[in-house]
Amino acid sequence: MYFYRMKKGLFFLLAAALVSFSPAPTYKLGLLKYNGGGDWYANLETSLPNLIEFCNKNLNTNINSEQGIVEVGSPELFNYPFIHMTGHGNVVFNSQETENLRNYLISGGFLHISDNYGMDKFVRPQMKRVFPELDLVELPFSHPIYHQKYDFPNGLPKIHEHENKAPQGFGLVYQGRLVCFYDFECDLGDGWESYEVHKDSPEARQKALKMGANILQYVLMGGDKKSKP
To answer: pLDDT tens-digit profile of 172-203?
Structure first.
């Protein structure tokens, strides 16, 4: 598999190794810190760390067990191949942050947004500022992101009820590449948390972790090349 480390829009090839033969190089995943008053830190303690542990065990990845925390406008954003964003409330990107996030995404980075309930009406207009020419589109259940190591023939699993609506997975596709995946009415990030945080059932937590692993496999291991069923 190929993995790229990005800095100021340039790519540095770190390694090329099939995951079935040896682990990928060590790298970090990032949690996005944003302004506006929303709780970007909603799942700070155990969510992404638990997903990392799950992937290292089940996908043979070699991801650093410590997540990074990175601000939207920081040049350090380019050091992370995968950024996770969550929260319940307001999101505001200023002009510099908007430009920085766009450059990160069109340069090969990936953003996963997990609506922790209440974020939707705030994050959509901000992402529209990042990509005014694009719309968030619902991905079909046949999309490869649902069919990596773990098969989800009906799309996203339902982790938290919230408004009891069906979970939906949306994407931003730039020049044929999925650069952002947004889970709505699903709450994957909460499902990655340790049991004592939300008391989610073992079944729900496993579904959330498996879907999270699919997203990482799709992004970091060339899962977009996998044939659709």
So the answer is: 999 999 999 999 999 898 889 887 766 778 89
Contact assessment for residue 59 and residue 221, using Cβ atoms and an 8 Å cutoff = yes
Q: What does the domain layout of the chain look like in residue ranges?
A: 2-225
pTM, full prediction: 0.87
Question: What CATH number does domain 2-225 carry, 3.40.50.150, 3.40.50.12140, 3.40.50.10800, 3.40.50.970?
Answer: 3.40.50.12140
Angle at 30 between CA 28 and CA 35, to 5 degrees: 160
Structure tokens at 93: 């990107």
Q: Which residues of the chain have pLDDT under 50?
A: 1-24, 227-229
> Dihedral of CA 192/124/224/157: which sign?
positive
Between vectors from CA 180 to CA 51 and to CA 42, what angle results, nearest 5°? 50
Rounded to whole angstroms, the Cα distance separating 228 from 98 reads 33
Q: How far is CA 189 from CA 23, 82, 150, 159, 210, in A?
A: 25, 14, 17, 9, 12
| Distances from the Cα of 148 to the Cα of 15, 169, 202, 208, 223, angstroms | 21, 15, 21, 14, 7
